[in-house]
Amino acid sequence: MHQAVPKTDAPTDVLDRFAGATPELARLRALRPELIELEQRAYEVLFPVRTGPGPATGSGPATGPGPATGLGLATGFGPATGPGPATGLGLATGSGPATGPGPATGLGPATGLGPATGLGPATGLGPATGLGLATGSRSATGSGPATSARTVPGTVTDTGVSVAERAAAALAVAVEHRRAPAVGHYRALLDTATGETATADRIIARAPLDGDTATAATAAKATAATTTATATGAATPGRIAAAVAHARLLTHTPARGGLDALRAAGFTDPQIVTVSQTVAFVNHQMQLAAGLALLATGDSGTGTDPGAPSTTVAGGPRYTTDVLTWRPAIRPLAPGELGEEHRAALAGKARVDTPYFRTLGHDLGILAVRTAIDLAAFTAEGGLPRAERELAATAVSLYNGCVYCASVHARLTARLHGDPAPVRRFLAYGSTAVLGRRWKLITRLATGLAPVPATAAEADVEALRELGLTELALVDLVHCAAFFGWANRLMLSLGSVEGEDQEHEGRQATE
Fold first, then answer.
1. Which runs of consecutive H residues, i.e. helices, occur in 82-162?
2. d(CA 238, CA 306)
3. What is the distance between the alpha carbons of residues 265 and 261, in angstroms, rounded to a whole number?
4. What angle separates helix 471-493 from helix 458-466, to the nearest 10 degrees?
5. What are phi and psi of 219, to 5 degrees?
6. What digits encode the pLDDT tens for the residues 113-159?
7. Dihedral (Cα; 377, 383, 385, 390), 10-degree rounding
8. CA-wise closest residue to 446 among 388, 489, 490, 406
9. Do 194 and 203 contact (CB within 8 A), yes or no?
10. How far is CA 163 from CA 62, 249, 263, 361, in A?
């Protein structure tokens, strides 16, 4: 079931708050406005707001006798909107956090969180006007989204993951990234969804949650209690604890991501995709905020030592430019189950034919926006050359240990660059073997955005500026590196690599 959600058209959105809204940030955002618009759209799809009357199932606001028309939450998702925003988070009066770090100062009013009108079609996930996302094709010249795009893909797919589960997972990610504005924002969503503050307090303190399950064996004991929750989408302590544990695992050690604890807590396959998408997106969101803040102010806002050595990555024999096969850990949609909306969301036959993308098809809404972000980040005209965008993707994939992603994007880098030798050297020996100062600095900045929290420093940016990289090229580098904080976590959590059989790559290199 899909519910159309109109896009907010406002000067301040969540990315502004997380990165620190400044005139310089606004200038940088304006270099790739379609990507910023898509980022906000992805947030709204994962944390949508209800536009009709009444509270959602089991998720009303934390205060009062019940929301007025327009203040409820859609099937347990997202913040209330309307009068009385609390500390600029778009929550009903009194719903802000009672304890803990709370929202950081300067978050501003909640314009940009709630739905507005005028974003385009209420249904359909087809390509956005002006984005260059024609079904079945990627721009052959590498020209992608136009800056005049106003129609953004996205309906909300209700897989039954409640707002409490989404917000709890997002809060856990924000805590690990040490991003105070995001911690305040997602804790307020969670407090509103649960009607209490203890769960958020525990997540922020990294304390055990009620229903916390360290292993799949102990989680199995809670399965009977979560059967009803699975059917209704209502949160239980066991499901929230499993979502938080999954969030922490994917945030810090994505290569060890497993699904047994989620299954034992009662999450279905489509719900597992939604939880993984939520966790992966918020990691991406935190890394994008850190990168844009770094470009705008010289400070990523993560609290890490700016004088610390740059992050490096090691290569090794498991990394290759050979074509590998990804095996899904949950059942992908069969080709016959894909409707026209799926095919439009996947933007091409290569993705339709790939088990990975058909696995993501369980949550159609976020898949559509994610595809649009992928295409826009990697094919927009001007800025960073395409080969170097793919080099950034390869560097982040090496850091996160995503063998499959590294093979795809190293292969694309080599093809676009015209010489596979330096790329194979990078895969084999890591950062220390990168040839040429420009590539070395590009991989250093991209890799510095991958840790949790990010370690990239102003010196990394200034060195690239001294080499002549424009602000647009630097913005492209940040967007592409941050996107792979999302892509790697999905690839690693939802399946694994086996063998070296032929597999569609899902993204074709442009000449």
1. none
2. 39
3. 6
4. 130
5. -65, -30
6. 333 333 333 333 333 333 333 333 333 333 333 333 334 465 778 89
7. -30
8. 388
9. no
10. 13, 20, 19, 21
